[in-house]
Amino acid sequence: MTSQDVFDVLIVGGGPSGATSAIELARAGRKVALLDKAGRIKPCGGAVPPRLIRDFQIPESQIVAKITSARMVAPSGREVPMPIDGGYVGMVDREHFDEFLRNRAASVGAKRLTGSFLSMKRDETGLNAVSWREKETGEVSTLYARAIIGADGARSKVASLSLPDAERVPCVFAYHEIVESPAPDDGADFTPDRCDVFYQGRVSPDFYGWVFPHGKCTSVGVGSANKGFSLRNATATLREAVRLDNAKLIRHEGAPIPLKPLKRWDDGHSIIVSGDAAGVVAPSSGEGIYYAMESGRVVAETVDEFLASGSVEVLATARKKFLKSHGRVFWILGIMQHFWYKNDKRRERFVSMCDDPDVQRLTWQAYMNKELVRANPLAHVRIFFKDIAHLMGIVSPNA
Predict the structure, then answer these.
(1) CB burial of residue 178 (10 Å; 0-12, 13-18, 19+)
(2) 66: part of which helix (H) or strand (E)?
(3) Are residues 370 and 51 in contact, defined by beta-carbon separation less than 8 angstroms?
């Protein structure tokens, strides 16, 4: 084996996180291999904030719809509109978006490998020897890498082989159906620039259901951590509620989505995880694309520094950097999910709170810019007292 046979980094998983790491490391001059199964599409609403589009230079061609409002639906059927003042939420189709990112990685020098990760071990020189199966031929090969990034999703095989308690991260199980978007005159309760979010126990006992337009197609899905709850039946209920039950089914997918970052991202030697494998999906909302790509960027920068210095202590800084920027948001959203999604009585009050102009303005500002809004302290004070009133039942949920 010569130095030509060894990669600086092997990235397992070519979703938004892994592809972003591959792009960043290849641009930094590292020899990168990107291993992806291909053909699998993660169930995902596909929402991306303007900050992601800006920070990661996503072209207009990848934005299949622009959402200018949301509709929150309470257990009682009450509907609360949440218009976006002066902005929009971009929508992407993961089938094409992920491939666009993988192709971008290849265009800047990463080597794409299509197949399945099987196992890994460390040889006598400290290199990682990785066994993988090529998709087309079924041939099993071994490649060598100085570092490995596991971006292979929730229940990551890389994480399970290298990190303690990786399989104990709590998950929501998500399922969605991609259907043809209806014509304007076919009678569906549907608007092509509006996302619908259903907070109803019949749709999900502990999370929510969604209807997210993607231009020519639409994602209709639900999430729940309750393993006895039928996600398919709930999705059928949701499709019927918005009169999309007769819409043509294009495809369907299901997968676990982690809602808590792993306590450790690296093995203290040369392996580190990112994206869903690291548990960086926002609680309450289940939003993952931005955080996957941001963690992919942070992990890539950290691995590049590790390769340059040889210091294994550097790897532990990736998690710290990410949580320094986003940990407080995750903590707040986790509390929100734990309290407000517990039963229909609380969900009713939660949707009622969403009718407040201060809540709407600060929610959209925080979502689009990916940081807590501190510019209007009086608005935060008003929201605090309104929250207390809702918690104590002082105000009607229909107020």
Answers:
(1) buried
(2) strand 65-67
(3) yes
Using the predicted structure, report yes or no on whether residue 66 has a pLDDT greater than 50.
Answer: yes
Instruction: State the pTM of this model.
Output: 0.91
Contact (CB, 8 A) for 395 and 389: yes
- Helix H segments across 310-376? 317-340, 344-353, 357-369
User: Can you tell me the distance from the alpha carbon of 202 to that of 200, in angstroms, rounded to the nearest whole number?
Assistant: 5
Residue 266 carries which DSSP code?
B
Are the C-beta atoms of 257 and 222 separated by less than 8 Å?
no
User: Residue 337: which of 273, 288, 282 has the closest Cα?
Assistant: 282
User: What are the tens digits of pLDDT across the range 233-271?
Assistant: 999 999 999 999 999 999 999 989 998 999 999 999 999
Which pair of structure tokens corresponds to residue 248?
């043509």
| CA neighbor of 18 nearest in space, from 31, 38, 37, 34 | 34
Model confidence pLDDT, tens digit, residues 204-220: 999 999 999 999 999 99
Please enumerate in sequence order all residues whose Cβ is within 8 A of that of 249, keeping only pairs 6 or more positions apart, or say none: 177, 178, 179
| Structure tokens given for 254 | 């299901």
**Helix, strand, coil share of the chain (percent; to 5):** 40, 25, 35
* Segment holding 110, helix H or strand E: none
Write the CA distances from 311 to 254, 270, 271, 304, 344, integer angstroms.
39, 10, 13, 11, 51
Residue where the block lists tokens 């100085």: 146
Which residue type is seen at 205?
A: P
Instruction: Report whether pLDDT(22) > 60.
Output: yes
> Which strands sit side by side in the sheet containing 65-67, from one edge to the other?
47-48, 89-91, 65-67
pLDDT band at 165 (very low <50, low <70, confident <90, very high): confident
Q: Which of 280, 304, 366 is nearest to 11 (CA)?
A: 304
Of how many residues is the chain composed?
399
